[in-house]
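dumping the sequnces here before i forget
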Amino acid sequence: MGINAERADGTVIAKADGRIDSSNSREFHSELEAVVADSDAALVLDFEDVAYISSAGMRVILLTAKSLQKSGTKFALCSMDDSIREVFKISGFDKIIEIHHSQAEALSAVSA
Amino acid sequence: MLFLRADTNSEVRKTSYNELADLVAAIEELGEEDGWSGELTFRISLVVDELAQNVVDYAYIDTPGDVEVAVTSTDETVVIEITDEGKPFDPLTEAPAPDLTSPIESRPIGGLGVHFTKTLMDDVEYRRESGQNRLRIVARKVK
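..and the predicted 3d for all of it:
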């Protein structure tokens, strides 16, 4: 698991990769916190290269969504494969966090 | 019958979590060898991951121990039995039902693992027997 972040036009695009589970969810959380620290830029978290996420990773997503909502920062997710999308759906997170098919759609949604 | 064993007997919980990741990788490998669909492999590996993590976090919260995972594959189903010798813990009744509808600010953290199990498996059963927690989950190969 790792996160690669780049900034473009007031948005941070963070691309996670690998598997997000109980063995690395703390690391995922601290990397994500480092990405959003000292910035009020909108965040797009790209799941294209994420192969797996368990409830330990979903916990981090929810904590991040809560903290970004508190600071009024826009947040969107994108490019999930079907199984990851299913995990978000079962968790009911698709009702509270924006999920887009492509990074381009997510970017235009958070910059709107 | 295929048999896997994840030894979570470790002072450091992090080590147990790394072993869980190995266990899940072993399940996925097994699914590939046995010809499971990608969707079935995903459902089973996620559920085994969640249930075994519960064992580490609750049944073995005071004293770590072994988690045994036995997988039986037939033409129509995959049956998985997860056994531990920790303190009595029935995740199916003791884990609170998750809140799936409240807004972000009041959405509680946690409770999703057992919810995944109930949603993704076709049958789930818990028994306390001979000082062991025994969970039996069944996934149909064709929905």
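The mean pLDDT of chain A is 95.
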